[in-house]
Write a structure and sequence with these properties.
155 residues, mainly alpha, 67% helix
């Protein structure tokens, strides 16, 4: 008969809580990642569209993000306030230099995570999907380690 409770010698529930300040710092880092992930995804897609088509338009952003035009307009307005894009009503959307740099950094993180996941044996499709979440939450230290490990695995 199988029991649903944890084994008696398990450390689950018996460990002491970590320092509140350290724990708060971890949660703060996650909150910051959540704040920037939408901006990073949008500037990366805008950069991709500009490179492919010479422009990025709300209609295409909405289609590719799977959201409404109103949602895209709201996010573009936010990105303008943050100095990442330039846009005028009924016109194309362009990246500022700061937006372009954010797009390049996001693309770099995405590529590192995808390469690592594929090298670890994850299918191409799953690696692309999983990287979309992971890329926003890894530190530079972790990215450097993933990149180094990928080079070793790929040899």
């Amino acid at each position: 008969m199988t029991s649903n409770s944890a084994p008696e010698n398990s450390d689950l529930g018996n460990s002491e809580l970590e320092d509140a300040g350290q724990q708060a710092a971890k949660f703060e880092r996650v909150r910051e990642a959540h704040k920037t992930e939408v901006a990073e995804d949008y500037v990366e897609l805008i950069d991709d569209l500009i490179n492919a088509n010479g422009e990025a338009r709300v209609v295409e952003l909405a289609e590719r993000m799977g959201v409404s035009h109103a949602t895209v307009n709201k996010i573009i307005a936010r990105l303008q306030r943050e100095g990442l894009v330039i846009s005028k009503p009924y016109r194309s959307i362009f990246l500022t230099e700061e937006g372009r740099q954010m797009a390049l950094a996001a693309r770099r993180r995405h590529e590192i995570v995808v390469r690592f996941l594929k090298a670890a044996g994850v299918s191409d499709a799953t690696a692309e999907i999983d990287a979309e979440g992971i890329e926003h939450h890894v530190s530079e230290e972790t990215l450097d380690c993933l990149s180094s490990l990928t080079l070793k695995i790929e040899k």
